[in-house]
């Protein structure tokens, strides 16, 4: 009876350990966590702050055309490991060493990685940023108000963030995502190894989106030429958190993914780790040459909540695979027919990006008033004179970032209409071109068949996608612009590319068969209908006997 009672009523310590292990195993395998705990708790191994630090030996450089990171940025990254480790010990545990530290270690891991509300994840991430700034001696507008209820929340996050601080925070989050693809030590040659140059993505469009959302910057002509280094009015932490929840909700997963990635790297076999990253070029010494830059890919990944988010996140770290580029107007030629030859048969999600400038003279190009918008489709294109599609997104990519998901009211996602091969008279011909949202003849985005002109209308004409302006200072009247470049990226992976190759080969075979003429059918002149017609025209009154 005594043994049965002891088994039925475990001690509070055993009960808590079981709860913490169950919660942690839902995120990461317990054997891996146990190995990471052993490595960080032994005296001759790395400490927890070292294990949670970003890969050493990396030098982060400024992205082309954007201001450099703040002078204290590398010091901020150096304090990232201790800042994350402080989250582990925030529950009041004095030490995480020895067997007695296993439960506190799990408690700290669950604090960082367990499934919680998005607002709490963002609050933890802001705490990490504030702690890293404090270690680096950098200015930080994030403050904490003590909570009346107590607990482990440690108060409410308040304060105000300047534009430079928002950029530093976003770059820190990107480095945390980059760490998942980097080796634990980017330079394995000791002190003599040269640092690996890593090019940071441009985050100006994200910073500007946060400022416009909070009202710190007006959505008018002042957007053109705006720079992070120009300073200006800051954003309250509550408003910045609201912007992240609505526009870049993926930022909330940065801390959890970072901790899991660091632990995996800690316990991984060094030889396997080197082979796994040997094919990844971590040095970005070339600028972004496509419309889908790494900064725009990262912004899209933060706004999506489906499997495509991982695709764009990988593109923001190592760049897009050029084999996924289905069409580029500067390479394949402008026009709907050239576009169709690249996307026909691709039955998978695609991203269409176009850059243009509003008509009004050459001065718009000279003043760099180009804007970039795009559409994300979940399925392939079809040649129809009506709208079709099941889901999709519209996005403004430059100079400001916005993602417009479906509204759920209508399903006019895509319109792609080519000239029919057999033309017939139509009293009201349907427009030939590419469109997204709106209705036929009143599309939200319409690209003509020559890919020379694009028309962007106000969101009032569209019930398919959510409201929001796609270009700066967009009014109620349609905006007609000249197209500079069009890109289409396939996001279905290698299997979808193979299916498209099979489709194109089959279509080529059918085309060759249609070109071939069977000369045997024209070889017997006496039996041909052409000879009969010629004889009738020569002597129509001649009596002929019908051959039976």
UniProtKB/TrEMBL annotation:
Pfam annotation, one family: TLD
Bias type Polar residues, positions: 1-10
Residue span(s) of domain TLDc: 290-492
Superkingdom to which the source organism belongs: Eukaryota
Region (Disordered): 1-23, 45-73
Composition bias, Low complexity: 45-55
PANTHER family: NUCLEOLAR PROTEIN 7/ESTROGEN RECEPTOR COACTIVATOR-RELATED (PTHR23354), TLD-DOMAIN CONTAINING NUCLEOLAR PROTEIN (PTHR23354:SF104)
Protein known as: TLDc domain-containing protein
Organism, as annotated: Urochloa decumbens
